[in-house]
Every structure is written in structure tokens, then in C-alpha cells.
Design brief:
Layout lengths: L2 H17 L5 H11 L2 H80 L8 H17 L2 E4 L12 E7 L8 E6 L1 E4 L2 E4 L1 E6 L3
Parallel strand pairs: 2-6
Antiparallel strand pairs: 1-4, 3-6, 4-5
Helix pairs in contact: 3-4
Length: about 200
């Protein structure tokens, strides 16, 4: 065969391929079904239906599980809110009870002061006042309240000492020269700073 004839045959084959109709997938499926064994088709259909039912059951189970978890979450959130409210009420109750107990002890101190003032004007009430002061100090001690009473020459602590003025003193410069009024602290928290004068060192 000459080269010219071979080229012509190739062109004819290409024209035939280009002119061939496209195969329709649906038609191909119909042909496959028509050629298949009916029992095989029935088994495949049954398998597909079973798979669909399984998928539907799984989806329904999943939805039910999601709803159950959402309900559990809502209950837990409600329980937590109720717990917080109970704890807040408990703290308020304990705070009120502690305040009541403190006031009761202070009332005893006040009653003793009233009795001291009811004495005759000429009576020496210093002993009674001292007793009442000791009683009051015991109340403060029970509440973990301690006094702040820096000695002369103590380093100045701005957190615990309130400076009234700077004065001439034989104490080192910048240290406490004299205590004017004690301070008080409770559990390391300063309730009232001690009032002091500070030495100029002159």
C-alpha cells in the first residue's frame, strides 16, 4: 500500500469515528438490565432498599441522640445556675450570721461602757473602762484583727503608716519618730494605717 493510500484510509477511519453517535448512559443501563438475570436484579434491588433503610434508621438514631444530648446540656446548665444561686444565698446567709455574732459581742462592750458612765461622777471608772477595753480587744482578736504600733526608729512602710508630719528627732532620717495613733489590720489587710511622725534626722 502506498503512503497516499494509507493516509486516505486513516482519514476515512477518523470520519467514521467522528460521525458515530454518542452512547446514552441510560440506554446502556437499560441494555444491561435487559441482559441481566432477573434474580440478580431482584437481589440488587433488595440490597439497595436494605441499605437505604439502614441509612434512614442511622439518621433517625443520630437525630434522637442529638436531641438527647441537647436536653442533657440544658439540664446541666439549669443545674449549674441553680447551684450558683444556692451558693450565693449561702454566702449571704453566712455573712449575715457572722455580722450578727460580731454585733452581739460589740453590744456587750457597749453595755459595759454604759454601766461605767452610770457611776457617780466622783467614782473612779478607770478600772471599769480598762475591763471594757480588754473585752473589746478580745473581740478584735477573735476576728483576727491586730494592731499596727511601730516603734521609734522603725523603717517607714507607706502601706501601713500614715505620715502626719516630719519632725526633728534623734531617730535615723526617714524612720518613725513617734506613734500618734495605732493602726489595725485584719488577715494581712490594712483596715486603718498607723499615724506617725517621721524623723528629719536633725
Amino acid at each position: 500500500m502506498s503512503e497516499k493510500d494509507a493516509t486516505a484510509d486513516a482519514e476515512d477511519a477518523a470520519d467514521e469515528a467522528a460521525g458515530a453517535p454518542d452512547v446514552d448512559p441510560d440506554e446502556e443501563l437499560v441494555e444491561r438490565v435487559a441482559e441481566a438475570d432477573p434474580e440478580t436484579i431482584a437481589r440488587e434491588i433488595a440490597s439497595l432498599r436494605s441499605a437505604r433503610h439502614d441509612a434512614e434508621d442511622a439518621a433517625a438514631e443520630y437525630e434522637a441522640r442529638v436531641e438527647d444530648l441537647e436536653e442533657q446540656l440544658k439540664r446541666k446548665q439549669a443545674d449549674f445556675r441553680n447551684f450558683k444561686k444556692r451558693m450565693e444565698r449561702k454566702r449571704e446567709t453566712e455573712k449575715a450570721r457572722a455580722t450578727e455574732e460580731l454585733v452581739e459581742r460589740l453590744l456587750d462592750v457597749r453595755n459595759n461602757l454604759v454601766r461605767a458612765l452610770e457611776q457617780d461622777e466622783d467614782a473612779d471608772i478607770r478600772g471599769g473602762v480598762r475591763t471594757t477595753l480588754d473585752q473589746f480587744d478580745r473581740v478584735l482578736d477573735a476576728e483576727n484583727v491586730t494592731s499596727i504600733e511601730p516603734e521609734p526608729g522603725t523603717e517607714l512602710d507607706p502601706q501601713r503608716h500614715e505620715v502626719l508630719m516630719r519632725v526633728d528627732s534623734d531617730q535615723p532620717e526617714g524612720t518613725v519618730a513617734e506613734l500618734h495613733r495605732p493602726g489595725y489590720e485584719m488577715a494581712d489587710k490594712v483596715l486603718q494605717a498607723a499615724q506617725v511622725t517621721v524623723s528629719d534626722g536633725d
